Amino acid sequence: MFADFIKRLTQPDPAPMHDLDARLALTALLVRIARSDNDYSATEVQRIDQIIMGRYAIDETEARKLRQDAEALESQAPDTVKFTRAIKDAVPYEERLGVIEALWKIVLVDGERAAEEDALLRLVVGLLGISDTDSAMARQRVASAG
Fold first, then answer.
1. Distance between CA 90 and CA 26 in Å, rounded?
2. Looking at beta carbons, which pairs linking 108-112 to residues 24 or more positions away fall under 8 Å?
3. pLDDT score of 135
4. Which residue range or ranges hold the Co-chaperone DjlA N-terminal domain (predicted)?
5. CA nearest 124: which of 112, 111, 139?
């Protein structure tokens, strides 16, 4: 189902993504960070749904469907380096910065920072071309919002 999408996403020079494709790719990245510690909890699933409902102004049913599609895409997507670089090439910086904040929301949702989540988030920050300072500020915003 996602083979064509992944092929387009990982082309040497990917075209800018359509809005629905960008939503799917960015949600799959949220799923990937949530799964990185091998504990994909109900709390993380709920937070992903909340993030995408707010980010894309969609209802709960649409959010659940998008997350489920993203879960399937994430399981078929190439390694994080290729997947994230493709997103970087296809998504504007401002949106990528918002993704980093959303990723911090997933990492911090359970009150624990698993080493696997931290390591993956550090990798993704660099691959998305986001500065460490911008990432730290995003983390602080998320942490202070509770």
1. 11
2. 108/139, 108/142, 108/143, 109/43, 109/44, 109/47, 110/41, 110/43, 110/44
3. 94
4. 23-140
5. 139
CATH number, domain at 51? 1.10.3680.10
Tell me which residue range forms the domain holding 25.
3-8+15-145
Greater confidence, 5 or 20? 20
**pLDDT single digits (tens) 17-33:** 666 777 888 899 999 99
Number of domains observed in the structure of the chain: 1
Listed in sequence order, the residues at least 6 apart from 17 whose beta carbon sits closer than 8 Å to its beta carbon are 9, 25, 90, 91
Are 90 and 9 within 8 A, CB to CB? yes
